[in-house]
Design goal:
209 residues, mainly beta, 8-stranded mixed sheet, 1 helix, globular
Length: 209
């Protein structure tokens, strides 16, 4: 009857919200007093923000080192899982080495973090100044929604290796990212996070350090 029809119409209007992962990335420079030949260390973090309503599935991290820094090694800080690292010399003709960690089979619940540490040697002849290692992260799984918070930047050097140089990356701020070295060299970190390809461009928090 009419009452039953009204009840059916009300049922069809129910909306189920999308579940969303919210990756964020931070980088710290941990070194001071650097001179050519010294080894710098950087702590890099990817996290699934507490505001996420979904797990962050199969994340990745990349670090585009300055041309004046020579990759040495890395170590996980967070225990229980070790991502796979692949390195790419002279990435995109920049003269800079790209490091890419893939977390295949790994999932991060809201609020979860993963930290790792990178070591790189200051090349001989490096002049005093500010040098930037550009870190970005995101997900290799494009089947669910990913949303970051804040401003965006264009992935001009295709750091995620997906052949899309026009996509917007989510830019995160650094935490204590500048190492001041009197009369020698200072080091600055810049970090990025990315939404999965094939989804609308999204914003992420922060800005370059």
């Amino acid at each position: 009857d009419g009452d039953n029809m009204a009840a059916e119409e009300q049922c069809t209007s129910i909306t189920i919200p999308n579940t969303t992962a919210r990756p964020d990335v931070t980088v710290w420079s941990e070194s001071t007093g650097l001179v050519p030949g010294d080894v710098a260390s950087f702590r890099i973090r990817i996290e699934n923000d507490w505001a996420a309503t979904s797990e962050l599935i199969a994340p990745f991290l990349t670090d585009l080192l300055p041309a004046e820094f020579i990759y040495s090694s890395w170590t996980p800080i967070t225990t229980g899982f070790t991502p796979t690292l692949t390195t790419f010399a002279n990435h995109d003709g920049t003269g800079r080495e790209l490091l890419k960690w893939d977390f295949a089979g790994y999932q991060m619940i809201p609020g979860a973090i993963y930290d790792l540490r990178v070591y790189a040697t200051v090349a001989p002849g490096t002049l005093a100044g500010d040098y930037f290692n550009t870190v970005l992260g995101g997900t290799n799984d494009t089947t669910y929604f990913v949303e970051c918070a804040g401003t965006t930047a264009v992935d001009a050097n295709d750091q995620d290796l997906d052949d899309d140089r026009l996509e917007q990356l989510c830019v995160a701020s650094t935490a204590a990212g500048t190492t001041v070295v009197p009369s020698v060299v200072s080091v600055v970190g810049a970090s990025f996070a990315e939404a999965s390809s094939g989804l609308p461009n999204v914003d992420v928090g922060g800005g370059a350090g």
